[in-house]
Amino acid sequence: MENLPRRILKMVEILHRDGYKNIYIYSGMSPSGMHWRFSIGRMKSGCWPQNDYLVFSSIKDEGVVEWSEDNSSAEVLAKNFVSYYGLNSDDKVAFNANYHIWYSELLKILKNNELLVFYADYDDPHSYLLKYAPGFCGKSS
């Protein structure tokens, strides 16, 4: 079974597939390297990450997320995310039509249970990918 961070990454891809192409994820590692951090939010004018994200959290391989008691699959996480955060037709307006394509291709290059790490206090293996990320507007504070 995939770890929870991978299920969350796939959840975002499912949200894109279901039309919520305005949703982004920005992730990295905590200073200790023990927790995967992520923020999920709505792009503004095609730009991400934003400071007013929907969720910012830090987890290990397993744990809980605020939007879903059941985190057994990416599909369940996506369904509960839409409901919990009240995503609607406004979230289906793609301000950055290329982001979801880039993101889907990015997931394909990750190894089994590899985490997407754009930032860390040590070597961040995927930060170079941000150079080509559609709509990446720099680090969110």
Task: Please tell me about this protein's structure.
The chain has 141 residues and is α+β, with helices and mostly antiparallel strands. The protein has one domain (4-132). The chain is built from three helices and three strands. It has a three-stranded antiparallel sheet with strand order 1-2-3, with helices on one face.
Explain the layout of strands and helices:
Elements: H1 4-17, E1 23-29, E2 36-42, E3 55-59, H2 74-85, H3 99-109
Antiparallel strand pairs: 1-2, 2-3
Q: What does this entry show, briefly?
A:
By secondary structure, the chain is an alpha+beta fold. Helix content is 26%, strand content 13%.
Relative strand content? 5-15%
Strand line-up of the largest beta sheet: 1-2-3
Mean pLDDT: 92
Query: What is the count of distinct domains?
Result: 1
Beta strands, count: 3
Low-pLDDT parts are: none
Roughly how many Å is the radius of gyration?
Answer: 14 Å
Span between termini? 33 Å
| N to C succession of SSEs | HEEEHH
Largest sheet: 3 strands, antiparallel
Compute the number of helices: 3
Key structural traits:
3 helices; three-stranded antiparallel sheet; globular; alpha+beta; 141 residues
